[in-house]
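Narrative of activities, Objective 1.

The group set out to show that a structural description can be obtained from nothing but a protein's sequence at a throughput compatible with the screening campaign. Below is one input-output pair from the validation batch, recorded exactly as produced.
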Amino acid sequence: MRRDLLTGGIAVVVLTIVLGIIYPLAITGISQLVFPGRANGSKVSFDGRVVGSSLIGQDFGGRPAYFQSRPSATGYSGDVTYFSNLGPNSVEARDAVRRNLAAYLAREKPYDRGLSGQQVPVDAVTESASGVDPHISQANAWIQAHRIAVVRRLPLPRVDDLISAHTDGRFLGLLGEPGVNVLQLNIALEKEAPLR
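Output recorded for this entry:
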């Protein structure tokens, strides 16, 4: 029994050193050398300060001069990702979508009088699975472009060009849908037409 305890104790110490210290340090070192931006959270800087991550959606507080992200149950908190798990027949899910649609139309319709609820894309009124998706659909961005063009005093075609420039394509050219990174698009807007 003494021999088993000694063997077990040695195994715990050795495995702790190898798997708890050496391996994590090696992986961290390799990732810092091979892809340091991603290893450090894909941080995005603007005017010399970090303003967020290209991997996590941001809350732009409904300010009309900025494109808005998808709704989020977690307030875009990267450490508490969440999805509601409510089914398609859920009254709570239906009510949440209706509230989000009403808020979206209230924000966008003054700038696009012909906008109706049927034209609003699904991603504008529903949360993503993680609650922190940094992308919106191109259709969502094009609707918001009307508001941005008026508030920032930019021609609508120029705003559309910025949307196109900040649209990520399909993964491997096949999977998923093109998405517009909201944070990077808003930074491009600040460079193009800064708020005074």
